[in-house]
Amino acid sequence: MKVSFILFLIFSFSGFAQKSPDSLYLNFTKAYSDLADEKIANLYTEQAEMLNLYDGENSNSAKGQVEIRKYFQIFFQRFKASNQQLQLTFKIIDRKKSGENILDNGFYRLKILTPNKPSSFTFGKFSTILELKNNTWKFKTDATTNTDFIEFENANVSTIPAREELLYSPFYDELLGDYVTEKNEIIVIGRSQSRLYTYFEHTNQYRGLSMVNATTWNLGQTIIDNKVVQTLKFGEDKIEIYEHEKLISTAIKKHFYKNEKVFYKNSKGVKIGGTLFIPEKPNAKAIVLVHGSGPQDRNGYASIIRLLADIFAREGVTVLTYDKQGVGASEGNYEVQNFTSLAQDALAGIAFLKSSKALSLTKIGLGGSSQAGWIIAKAIEQTNQVDFALTIGAAGSGIDVVEQNLYNTEVLMKCTNTFSEKQITNAITQQRYFFDFLASSKNASKLDDFTKSIEKDTLIRDWLFPTSTQVDLTNRNQWYTALEVNFNPLSVWKNYRNPVLMTLSEFDDSTPTEVVKSKVDNLKNGNIKTIVFNKAQHIGLVTDAVCNSDIANLTTFHKDFFTTIKRWLESI
Q1: Is the pLDDT of residue 568 over 50?
Q2: Could you tell me the pTM of the whole model?
Q3: Which of 131, 214, 219, 319 could cysteine-pair with 309, CB 3.0–4.6 Å?
């Protein structure tokens, strides 16, 4: 549905006074997000003109507060009827003073949010005249028309409101893939929801990129770094690489596989959006890549899923990646799903691959990092359709969520060098009592009494979990009420008779590597191979200590990380 839009922006504010020009925009967007026609009309002068000049549409123009309010009553009703929300972002590129008025020019982005459906976007440009009335700025003239994503993105100014924008998939997905330099070195471009990433295969260097504009991105000395070491400029199927504004290399895009955007439904009919990687020379094996925790799309945390998919597809493995429910192009809401239901999304991916006779697949497995370990184990528990499994840095290879969470808390608290041993012990004990309460409400008093005895220590207050009266166990609105926190995957792995590779890292701050490896090895299941990468962190990046695991400060994947996984896939 194409819709006409007037001028807008969104953010929280106090009241509706607009003493500065920017506060007028903020007030307007707050009213807009509230779908409040009266509040919006009050932001115009009594005789204001609103001019909608969109291509292929009626002008829908209005004059005066009364007519403008009528317009918005009709306009907002269509969104109220669908229980939709609107979120706006503005970029003002030009502002001039003209007598007592201000003249603004800029661009906007409108995000339309629909419950359990993917969001949609519209872009436009505006010209406004602002007039000061009784020490308050109001819109005297408001004219809007069409524009495209590129114009909005390339406006190199701060947004109103200031916030991190998610990358616009229809544009940035076209930049992803493999580029080959003059020296025949492969550069892989991936992305997370908010930034591009680049992997230099010949050195294992990995960098998150910082945007200059839609096609120009800088990389620094570490994965997340504002220093400019090189600049990548994307052109038509190529990247030009600059150092100090001097062109040092050009990489040409090469297609080792085909990408297809696909949709499939899980067992409950929820529509899942994904990307299918079809190799140039397929080997009849396929893998569905599963997410870690949080609101991840098909590219994964720090683009790790997209990077794995690229590397596997170049080796001949067909790959399916997908968006979590409620993220990207997928319907639903991942936040209220447990491991069993999250596993059903992955299993639906296997069913989707099996349904394609054109792919001619003989083996289909599951793989993923971090939380994916529990999800993959749950999938194997539900079916015999998983032909092999790959886990990376996954506590779900050998312990439950409770044990993983307590380990993570202990590591993070110790790494701050702020807390005494007693404080760390108190925080961990309180968290353990909280999990005991989740398992049985009979343990409520134990949790509440202990929490009361230590909560006066303000230093550890942020590390404490809620008391029994602060948790509604019937509402799955938190990870600890949604997930099966006591699910122990060991029995699943013990009885699994297909190939498994579990990669772990020496300095993993999320997974107790030695504990997990010991538990898995004690199963004596000859189908499972466990490998520990020395001097590496949670997803295989090189580090020298567990307290130096933040990816922002790292630079390089372990030299054996990808080659080990590739060789194993080839061998099964």
Answers
A1: yes
A2: 0.88
A3: 319
